[in-house]
Amino acid sequence: MRPFEAFSVQHVFPIIFFLIYGFLAIRIGRRLPANQQTLLGIVMSAIIVVFMLGGSIIKMSHGTFDYKDDLPLYVCRIIAWVLPFAILYKNRFWLGIFYFWTLAGTLQGIITPDLAEGFPSYFYFRYWFLHAGLVVAIIYAVMIFKIHITWRDFWLAIGFAQVYLILIHLTNVFLGSNYGFTMRKPAGSSIVDLMGPWPWYILAGQGVMILLFLLLMLPWMKKGIEQRA
Fold it and tell me: Cβ–Cβ contacts within 10 Å for residue 83, how many?
């Protein structure tokens, strides 16, 4: 199987694909009645779940499933499982939190993918649908359901991120795993390499998270100012 090469065609192409995919999904969604808008959002998010399940089934069938790495305990995997229900019920609470978690949390995964197998591996497609596909699905939900992101969403996203960090670290200690990379850095090269050794990269990551969340608030701050003008 061909190995994945960062910043090659097999890296750039899926980014272009999901930009077009997102543009078309939002454009089509805006022309649909409310119930079909919701259905389209559910289908988009359900595709991600199918890719995740397929990956687990393949690994189980080959005897390579590893509970230390393949359980749905990474943030992106948790969001992927919950998102279809959040869209189905138009859950404003979680969609606001997922806006920050997804757009900030998957940025590193898109720019510096932690991916071993390249095109046309099944896990290549699963990786991109899980990361870029989530970004598209969240942006679709926010725009189609006309969700206005607020400072309350900002603080809830930060607060629940701390809850996740604590719980997942305790899980890692118990399982001997590294979900959320609280025990050690990712194996491949990433922005985390610039943040110092353990545990300082975790603290530095909190600062980067808050900065990214603030950047994600900028469009909504500007929109709020324009509405008051």
Answer: 26
